[in-house]
Write a structure and sequence with these properties.
The chain is built from 15 helices and 14 strands. It is an alpha/beta fold and 486 residues long. The chain is globular, with a radius of gyration of 21 Å. Its EC number is 3.2.1.86.
Length: 486
């Protein structure tokens, strides 16, 4: 056991959440529908995400988990009190765009929605928890899909900026760290979730994906400019879903395959952080018949308004080779199993060292502060006869990742903080399930929305508080080959 702190005194420790996965109250106080509000649970979910055209209206025969989620909308005081009990110094949340502008294109915001977040910030301040706010976390108002076609329409830039300006003016004195779009690069594999795109009948999907990506990147740069003007000292970060790709072998062709697959994500970081399109995209655009509508003003705003820091989620690494898909945009890549690492209950590779690798790669590439804003283990939790939940597998997972984070800091990486995904159990973004649990706090709700909503502390609750209090001194630097996550 380590005897000294592994993290600096001002290091931010906490958790991360998304409004559509925990708030509930989908129709309360004037909130409009967001794109997630028409995503059903069960087998229909994957069908909807792949072909959303026929799912844009709520159906009576389907269950929509975002409508109630874990009802944070009515339990926020209790939940934030528990985060305070864990001694969080930061909580990453999102503002649900459709709470503020129900259809997305209104000229004036919904005051009841703004007042809800006033109350959330009041509670965070009570427990001295720093809010880290995502402006758009897969929560584009559904009205912007139906009326304008989502982010393939340049008009969404202005609607987004009106929304962002409302947030900056209302909450700017209370929020230092902002993020423009959650996991912006996921638009390549999940165009509806990350880009509000309905591509069922679009012949060149890659063209549509990258045009929408461009408008989001421009919107982010303009929001960064606006934030710096309205709230001096506040910082804007981009947010990437980062899962580094390893080459299966040292065969040169496999190395090129990994290089190309990593560029799927790094393209977005390059534009956010450097302010211009990388040259490697020229060949890709040419070979895929992509001709983007980019104005001189777009280029200027991108160049002059780069992000202040790079935030990212890390859950796993991937492995690829030259014989599998390795494109900058495709509906899915073909995974290659890495024989050196284990997998979770849901088949996700578990690679703590990959987090250290990612931190070094991103910091060396961008030379800007980094912020780990999602990391965690989704697993099935069992309640013992005495009421306890002994999630040692989660403790082991987080312990081993945090040990590697500490190693990256020793390597020289400038890191703002670390927020685990799902400090309280929430609806899974990918599957809509509740049984895929990440939290330190158990919520009594099942996959069909049944349950008492009782909050119950897991074993990891006290463990994470001790990690925070000791700044990592209680972490165990065990041999990872002997560590079991099952």
């Amino acid at each position: 056991m380590s005897q000294e702190a592994l993290f600096p005194k001002n290091f931010l420790f906490g958790g991360a959440l998304a409004g559509n996965q925990y708030e509930g109250g989908f129709d309360k106080d004037g909130k409009g529908l967001s794109i997630v509000d028409v995503e059903p649970a069960g087998p229909e979910r994957s069908q909807m995400l792949a072909h959303p055209k026929n799912y844009l209206n709520i159906r009576d025969d389907l269950y929509y988990p975002s409508h109630k989620a874990i009802e944070f909308y009515d339990h926020y005081k209790e939940d934030i009190r528990l985060f305070g009990e864990m001694h969080f110094s930061a909580l990453r949340i999102s503002v649900n765009w459709a709470r503020i502008f129900p259809n997305g294109d209104e000229e004036t915001p919904n005051e009841a929605g703004l007042e809800f977040y006033d109350q959330v910030f009041d509670e965070l301040e009570k427990y001295q928890i720093e809010p880290v706010v995502t402006i758009s976390h897969y929560e584009t108002p559904l009205g912007l899909v139906k009326k304008y076609g989502g982010w393939n329409n340049r008009k969404l830039i202005d609607f987004y900026l009106r929304y962002a300006e409302t947030l900056f003016k209302r909450y700017g004195s209370r929020v230092k760290y902002w993020m423009s779009f959650n996991e912006i690069n996921c638009i390549t594999g999940s165009p509806f979730i990350a880009g509000a795109l309905v591509l069922d009948d679009v012949p060149n999907k890659i063209q549509a994906i990258y045009q929408a990506s461009h408008y989001e990147l421009v919107a982010s740069a303009k929001a960064t400019k606006l934030l710096h003007k309205l709230v001096p000292g506040a910082q804007m970060g981009c947010m990437l879903a980062f899962s580094p790709f390893y080459a299966k072998t040292c065969r040169p062709e496999d190395q090129i395959a990994a290089l190309q697959q990593n560029r799927v994500t790094l393209f977005y970081g390059d534009v956010h952080s450097r302010g211009y399109y990388p040259t490697y995209m020229n060949r890709f655009f040419k070979e895929n018949n992509v001709e983007l509508e980019i104005t001189d003003e777009d280029r200027k705003v991108l160049k002059e308004n780069t992000v202040d820091y790079i935030s990212f989620s890390y859950y796993m690494s991937h492995t690829t080779d030259a014989d599998h898909k390795s494109k900058l945009a495709s509906e899915a890549f073909e995974p290659v199993k890495n024989p050196y690492i284990e997998e979770s209950d849901w088949g996700w590779p578990i690679d703590p060292v990959g987090l250290r690798y990612s931190l070094n790669l991103l910091y060396e590439r961008y030379q800007k502060p980094l912020f780990i804003v999602e990391n965690g283990l989704g697993a099935r939790d069992d309640i013992e006869s005495d009421g306890s939940i002994n999630d040692d597998y989660r403790i082991n997972y987080l312990n081993d990742h945090l040990v590697q984070v500490a190693e990256a800091i020793k390597d020289g990486v400038d890191l703002i903080g670390y927020t685990t995904w799902g400090p309280i159990d929430v609806v899974s973004a990918g599957t809509g399930e509740m049984e895929k649990r990440y939290g330190f706090i158990y919520v009594d709700r099942d996959n069909k929305g049944n349950g008492t909503l009782e909050r119950r502390k897991k074993k990891s609750f006290d463990w994470y508080r001790d990690v925070i209090d000791s700044k990592g001194a209680v972490l165990k630097s065990a041999d990872l080959e002997e560590r079991s996550i099952h």
